[in-house]
Amino acid sequence: MTVTFRREGNAGLVELANPPVNAMGLAVRRGLLEAVRWAEAEAGLDRIVVSGQGRAFAAGGDAREFDGEPVPPHLPDVLDAIEACPVPWIAAAHGVALGGGAELMLACRYRIAAPGTRIGLPEVTLGVVPGAGGTQRLPRLVGLAAAVDMIATGKPVTADDAYEMGLVDAVADDPVAHALALDAAELAARSALSSLDGPEPDEMAIDKARASVARRMRGQVAPEKAIDLVALSVSEPFAGALRQERETFIALRTTDQARALRHIFFAERAAKAPDWLDAEAQRIESAIVVGGGTMGAGIAYALLLAGIAVTVIETDADGAERARAHVASIMEASAARGLLGEDKRARIEAALTISTDYADGASADLAIEAAFESMEVKKVVFSALEEALPTHAVLATNTSYLDLDEIAATLKSPSRLVGLHFFAPAHIMKLLEIVQGAATSHAALATGFDLARRLRKVPVLSGVCDGFIGNRILARYREAADTLLMDGATPWQIDEAMVAFGYAMGPYEAQDLSGLDIAYANRKRQAETRDPNRRYIPIADRMVHEGRLGKKTGVGWYRYPGGGGKVEDPLVEDLVAEEAHFAKVARRDFTSEDIERRLLLAMINEAADILAEGIAQSAADIDLVTVFGYGFPRWRGGLMHHADTLAVDAILADLRALETEDPIVWRPSAAIVACAERGIGFAEYRPGS
Ligand code: 3H9
Is 391 helix (H, G, I), strand (E, B) or coil? Predict the structure, then answer.
């Protein structure tokens, strides 16, 4: 039974019972309709109280059903029946009431929420619009401005805010008890929201929502459509507007964008330790973080937030002072954004030690090394850690590029070492690459996955290679961009093309932000092992030689006058033209489509190699890495999901065409050839298969 109902005096108690979060699939819709019929037939009822079992009132329509044909009874019809029921329904919500769950509340005559309940219409984050009356009932209840803001952004409000704005009638510790105590006459006098006039017009609110969506959800279709529908509530009668809402919802459900957003939603939830991992995770009470730079401080703060005591190890007193300042500035920023209250801050400060002596963290269950990217430094650090820590402690390195197996080889017990590759800022970015070396034990890996869960991060397993999954793809992206630059494009043209594709910023602006010296150091490190026959573009090296390190030096690919916003720099165009002249390159024009196509192909080809080599376990894992660590547009579903929408055959044909230009750089990956031959997409491809 996914919906139960029973009588208690004059009240009918209806409970959604579809764990874990009461998604409103077919069985729930049928159950709710049955409850309506029961309420209609049962004599003497003066109210129906609907609540949810478990941790949520209802998480909304079951997104797993959105790929198939809609099966009746449809949610809008069920909610219409609830609203039209002669016995008034009361929503008694707790946990979350999202999407169809919030729409169920809106179909009731009275709404109560437990403190902390989150109520919202997040449909646009799944690439659809509310499809069960939300765009019409919410503006009638809270006014146009508040409704359009909630629906266009998809952001939920908490119970207190919902009360302030009139979305709920009461906030109560026990919403069901509160509902049972309500005055029956007062309840009977309440109107259905669908019977009310539309809200007052508010052009400014609609324009503001459109401007905000154009800025923050650029390229996405659903938010625009959602705003159109909310705007309709002013003038269009309820029934007609509801029909349009339904048609829009049905049409959007199967668009590429909605499929992509669903893919990421479910992939994120499926990201957990692989089934073959048969060891228990080490329980982590306290940890050492070696290195208190920006990355180390961010990692330390993330651990502290999760209730883990941390000792940050620095090399000397000055380093310790800097580490303290780094953590303090993260805490200041969090407090300023209202994310860190006084109590929590005091707890975190009490759980943090900063020291130059490993012995101060000697009882740690985990050590994460976030020291300078040098093999020599890492070896010294791990030798000290092995010396200082108990044998059960898991040792982790946050290296972005260095060979985990080489570090492990210096340890007495190399199986303790795992890679935990965080992304800056480490307390905010959701991706955690968990790197498995040749000797890494299952227990160390399981500990990494368990830590990711505690830190609320998205874990992705990676094998050992230069750059692991994400940075290896990034290196190819940058190489392809630099080649375009050399051959005729400008940095601004390339950035613009990738912003139009959906990135928040293009590769050159991104490099200016992170600093050109980091990638430079990597190229130097890789120089000896680089394929001498592979075309090398020296433009980025020249930029570094000229002191153009990015925003921090005021000049990089762009200029930043007065430390402000970016300005295109003609000197960079001159520098590039000069390098092209030295290299005897006949420069030519590239369209935005050329640029987008080449950059995507370069990344897809590298990602396919990463799959073929078993560095990544699945295409979905690569999607998670690119979306949660590298700014690939979520609404395109991640790199490999997007590749599958382009179709493997077309990708192979494109690569073959480019291969005539440069047979080394554009040689199609074996995985692409295999997928094309077998007529499968990347989603179905498994390494070794
Ligand atoms: C909608 O409502 C359309 C309507 O307007 C019109 C319809 C006609 N569907 O996140 P968790 C699963 S669109 C299917 O790990 P948490 C989830 O996959 C919907 N499944 O827990 C996971 O499964 P598994 C609008 C769903 O406590 C399990 O539940 N609603 C759905 O961290 C636990 O989820 C939304 O966009 C769903 N709607 O967070 C809300 N929701 O155990 C989307 C969850 O197999 N959901 N599952 O891995 C969320 O934001 C979070 O899941 C929630 C719980 C906050 C509810």
Answer: coil
β-pairing, 170-171 vs 3-8, is: unpaired
Determine the Cα–Cα distance for residues 466 and 472; give it in Å rounded to an integer: 6
Geometric angle at alpha carbon 469, from 464 and 473, rounded to 5°: 130
Distance 266 CA to ligand 1 centre (A): 9
Spatial CA neighbour of 508 closest among 471, 539, 534, 547: 539
Strand order in the sheet with 170-171: 3-8, 11-16, 47-52, 89-93, 110-113, 170-171
Identify the residue whose C-alpha is closest to ligand 1 atom 11. Answer: 269
Amino acid of residue 207: D
Q: For residues 418 and 420, what is the distance between their CA atoms, to the nearest angstrom?
A: 6
- Residue reference for tokens 């609907």: 50
Atom of ligand 1 nearest to the CA of 100: 2
- In the chain, % of residues over pLDDT 70: 100
Q: Would you state the pLDDT for residue 522? A: 87
Residue ranges of alpha helices (H) inside 306-432 are: 317-336, 342-350, 375-388, 404-408
Q: Is the pLDDT of residue 366 over 70?
A: yes
Q: Which residue of 2, 18, 21, 265 sits with most ligand 1 atoms within 8 Å of its CB, as the best mutation to test the pocket?
A: 21
Q: Ligand 1 centre and the CA of 366: distance in Å?
A: 33
Atom number, ligand 1, closest to the C-alpha of residue 56: 56
314 is a catalytic site residue = no
- Flag whether pLDDT at 680 surpasses 90: yes
The answer to whether 103 is a known catalytic residue is: yes
Query: Which phi and psi angles does 366 have, rounded to 5°?
Result: -150, 140
Query: Would you tell me how many other CB atoms lie within 10 Å of the CB of residue 200?
Result: 10
Q: Which atom of ligand 1 is nearest to the CA of 103?
A: 5
Q: State in Å: Cα 85 to ligand 1 middle.
A: 28
How confident is the model at residue 167, as a pLDDT?
A: 98
List, edge to edge, every strand of the sheet that includes 157-158: 96-98, 118-120, 157-158
CA of 627 to the centre of ligand 1 (A): 19
**Amino acid (1-letter code) at residue 237:** P
**CA 494/CA 490 separation, integer angstroms:** 6
Give ligand 1 pocket residues (Cβ under 6 A): 20-21, 23, 56, 59-64, 75, 96, 98-100, 103, 122-123, 126, 130-132, 134, 249, 266, 269
Catalytic residue selected from 15, 103, 314, 509? 103
| Nearest partner of 131 among 99, 156, 157, judged by Cα | 99
DSSP assignment of 68-105 equals S---SSPHHHHHHHHHH-SSPEEEEE-SEEETHHHHHH
Q: How far is the CA of 21 from the centre of ligand 1 (A)?
A: 7
pLDDT confidence tier of residue 563, bands split at 50, 70 and 90? confident
Structural domains of the chain ordered from first start: 3-254 (3.90.226.10), 286-462 (3.40.50.720), 470-684 (1.10.1040.50)
Q: In what order do the strands lie in the sheet with 352-355?
A: 352-355, 309-313, 286-290, 366-369, 394-397, 417-421, 431-435, 458-462
Q: Give me the catalytic one of 15, 83, 123, 509.
A: 123
339 alpha-carbon distance from chain centroid: 19
